[in-house]
Amino acid sequence: MEEAERLSESIKELLASGRDERLATVLEEVHPADVSRVMRELPLGDQVRVFRLLTPQSAGAVLSELDDPTLSELVSALDEVEVSRILDRMPPDHVVEVVEELPKEQADKILDLMEEEKSEEVQELLVYGERTAGRLMSPEFVAVHEQATVAQALEHIRKAKTGDSAFYLYVVDDHDHLVGLVPLHRLLAAEPGTPIHAIRTEDVESVTVSTDQEEVARLVQHYDLIQVPVVDASRRLLGTIGVDDVIDVIREEATEDIQRLGGASGDETVLDPPQAVFLKRLTWRVVNLGTAVLAASVIGIFESSIQALATLAVFMPIVASMGGIGTTQTATIVVRGIALGDMTGSVLRRVLWKEVWLGLTTGAANGLIIAAIAYIWKGQVLLALILGVALVFNMLVAAVVGTLIPISLKMFRIDPAIASSVIITTFTDVFGFFSFLGLATLLMKFLL
Amino acid sequence: MEEAERLSESIKELLASGRDERLATVLEEVHPADVSRVMRELPLGDQVRVFRLLTPQSAGAVLSELDDPTLSELVSALDEVEVSRILDRMPPDHVVEVVEELPKEQADKILDLMEEEKSEEVQELLVYGERTAGRLMSPEFVAVHEQATVAQALEHIRKAKTGDSAFYLYVVDDHDHLVGLVPLHRLLAAEPGTPIHAIRTEDVESVTVSTDQEEVARLVQHYDLIQVPVVDASRRLLGTIGVDDVIDVIREEATEDIQRLGGASGDETVLDPPQAVFLKRLTWRVVNLGTAVLAASVIGIFESSIQALATLAVFMPIVASMGGIGTTQTATIVVRGIALGDMTGSVLRRVLWKEVWLGLTTGAANGLIIAAIAYIWKGQVLLALILGVALVFNMLVAAVVGTLIPISLKMFRIDPAIASSVIITTFTDVFGFFSFLGLATLLMKFLL
Lengths: 448, 448
Known about the structure:
23 helices
């Protein structure tokens, strides 16, 4: 992406030197995806300047590439009529991508200012729930009746002017039900008089308007699709979802999983202003403070043991820390397995056994090492043994907790990725302190 | 994916009742992607049985869908001649997907048994490094000379029989250099006599054989491509990469990031046998043990302070734990930002400032809360203050460490995702214990 940095530098230079005409010429040659990337790094005033130098077509494409909060700030800084004129020229699904990120009031005002027909098309799409196939789909596609001939179909495609996203010809029956598709290259190779139903692929994977976007992504990945037809409950063809939108979903969902597992919110980006993410960050940090106080209260129970033998305080975080890595590793693999569709009910016992086996074996290895270190350091055999045993116990707890908590969350339809280390390591922190300090307290008379 | 579970059940039933003929009929109707999913859950003997009931074409597709270790176990259980006959019928890039996952010796033997021409095509692709565009690409595509007419191009496509993955016609010059492309639907709409160069898109995004697969994925996502042409250093067209392979790369890379951040290896799956992942899991657990011992040794320095005031041991893990969530949140957002291409050198100062701001503000809030809790619990104002101040310090360290470590790793071309919590929280563990216990020791005479 060095090219991207060069472009960014030259746009900033032209802005600084006020050569707007030259900048407009440069921008004409730049892909809208690159323009939007540069714009995110600019102060708002410069964003508006760059935006107004774009051709209307490229301005629309830039808008649909921008994400919050850049998008809503820019739109607020522009004139609403100006924005609605640009949206009028965009395909309805791209308008949806813009409008759904704006505050409701602003979105309504802009929709009102748009051409009636386009505005209605957009509002029809906005009826579908967020994160559903209906919200993602484009209502523009080419379909012919199954009784049409190849020649008629070709004629139809020529007239349709659907742009570069037409790769399949969809086939429908008398009631607009989806009954197949024909890849364009197959159409090219067919005799003009052949009826379409003779060359169509019948068994077409499709989704309904209410299918969750994550399920759409799984289908596309599983069956190597490049476009998915979207139908209603009675299989009437309503639109299509292109693989480019699906890739965005895949990256969005992966980002969400990664960030939630790291105890951050799913939609934060490095470029967000700190004020915008303050509350979300604070929430998890306060939750973490709560779990830390909980763990501290367990230590509090054993304060007199520590008073008697301060060495306990030196070793106790080791047991908790090892439980932490155990739960985190296990939960990470399980959460990812759920996202990839590998972690199903039928393999639960196998996975649990795997984790328990790993907890026992790596626990035993680490238990031996830490017992040896503790013995060499402090010269107390019994203390070393207690430490080793508590560590093995905690790794076993880690295996069970790390497997079962994400799966239970999934069963209750809660995103398993919120089983971030903040939550799950609470168990091993508490259990770790409890088992080590508890064992030591029970055997205290032999330790002193 | 309930359908998938039903399919899995019915295949297992047919296997159990020995109705192989019926099973073969069922399998004919099932998509190879679904067959391979079910096979991963079966014991090896049943995998072989299912595999031998497949048509040769579908057997090939199943092989290219399978991942290690299932793939190499299955291939080892089959006859090498049998495998090579199946590979002979597969497109060369799919054969590569199978062969590259096998042990070298086994792969060589199978390549020797294959038809010479196909084997050579495959070996040409295997020359390119792993995770490069060359290794991903298919050498099958349709290209015509820029001087050809639309009619000639159409004739060429009809003869090429490239299967369902042909969406673009590529345009080359006298030296096979890529000079443009034409989407098939544009070809359909053009007059037969039009020269191709008049309707081609000239500005085509392409990659070279040595481009990293992650860069290919970023390009596809950024420019919404569905196929990327692959060229050599002199822009000669050598192959194409379809978006389906790119989606696999995106998911693979996301899995790697998620799992490495969680302290697990990038390629582990929930279904791996425990023995296969034992060493990788153990490595991180031992590294974690090492960092935990390091943190414990810091506590060891202050053992006499704890002896004097055991309450210190109760609160000290809180400071470390808050540093842990701070570094983890920050590093997660930064690592994901690097993967998405948002985190570039030009925004480093802005991101660092954001994290420091968040560290200070959330640190102050949490510091106040914990000071209040400590005061109510233990009634010691000074201890409560020391705890609050140490917590704010540690959150600041977390902000800086969490931002700079992933970026430094990236600069040294090390995957920033290995900056997993195991590594980065070492800093805040050590600093947290040191600052809290150090401050308490300095002011010990006022605490007792």
